[in-house]
Amino acid sequence: MLWLTWRQHRGEALAVVAVGVGLGAVLVLTGLQMRSAFDAQGVGGCLSPVQPANCSGVVNGFEQQFQLYLSFYQWFNLIPLVLGIFVGAPLVAREVERTTHLLAWTQGVTRTRWIVTKLALLAGGAAVAGIAFTLLMTWWRQPLDLIAGSAMRPDAFDFEGLAPAGYFVAALSIGIAAGTLLRRTIPAMGVAIIAFLALRFGTIALLRPNFMSALVVSTPVDSRPAAVGNGAWVLDDRLSDGAGHAFSGRFAFDQLCAGINDSKGALTSCLQHHGVVESLTYQPADRFWAFQAIELGLFVGVSVGLMVLTVWWVRHRIS
Fold first, then answer.
1. What is the SS3 assignment for 10?
2. What's the sign of the alpha-carbon dihedral 74, 79, 84, 85?
């Protein structure tokens, strides 16, 4: 079975390796470029407690220099989906379309062994690919994480820690399950795209902010506490009066402090004079690993459930 699985899927495996090598080369080259600029421009010195002059300009200049990279790498969120579409969806669907699964089942290989072996090997490969991708992205993002203070925000969280390996396995499992239930490769690819994106974005928008109870703090305008400023994931940031009534920044600037726009200090003083406070809802940076473990568990749970469904469906519903 191992040799048969390799022969059937070596094309996909070699394609994944080739894409991985190409992506790795790009990340290494651009990562070295970012690190060189980070050191040459003295960005690290601006992150120390005693900062030299013009640090804001230095950090902003560094981020502007690599703005193209920072905009593009978010598309890497779709890499696990490629695995689900081109490896997962055809796994069973293509066999059924060609009726080649019957050949394996008539040569002494049981249905259970046939599907379980494929699932185990491909899921293991997906996990290894996810771990390698995570390690490379963590190295690549290190200068950005130093500036941000942590990897808690979604633009970093999705590429570092434990959870990305779960994304790879889940994408594969979704594709396999879709192909098994639909028995058609192309429709299964479409369903896999929709299901994976719904799971990923639903987790980011609805589940992850509530993995643990968010902290809420009210502080004078322009004086965030260190815990919030040091890499926390801010979920909500609003202005309110002393009684807790929220209002928009436009109301504060246009009504309470109309005409005061000569300097940031004058505007801040005006807002503080009117008792305006900044209410922040956030997840602190020190919850990063707890959130990673929870999200990994979520995606592994989804993967296991889909694999169990796939095995059951192959054993009882495919002929």
1. helix
2. positive
Residue 235 three-state SS: strand
pTM: 0.90
3-state secondary structure of 276: coil
Question: 166-200 burial, b if ≥16 CB within 10 A, otherwise e?
Answer: bbbbbbbbbbbbbbbbbbbbeebbebbbebbeebb
Q: Fill in the amino acid letter for 290.
A: A
DSSP secondary structure of 84-141: IIIIIHHHHHHHHHHTHHHHHHTTT--HHHHHHHHHHHHHHHHHHHHHHHHHHHHHHH
Q: Give the number of other CB atoms < 10 A from CB of residue 23.
A: 15
What is the residue whose two structure tokens read 């994976």? Answer: 196
For residue 39, CA distances in Å to 32, 51, 110, 161, 274 come to 11, 15, 59, 25, 44
Tokens standing for residue 84: 């689900």
Q: What is the pLDDT of residues 82-113, one digit of tens each?
A: 999 999 999 999 988 888 777 777 777 788 98
Assigned token pair, 120: 């185990």
Residue type, 4: L
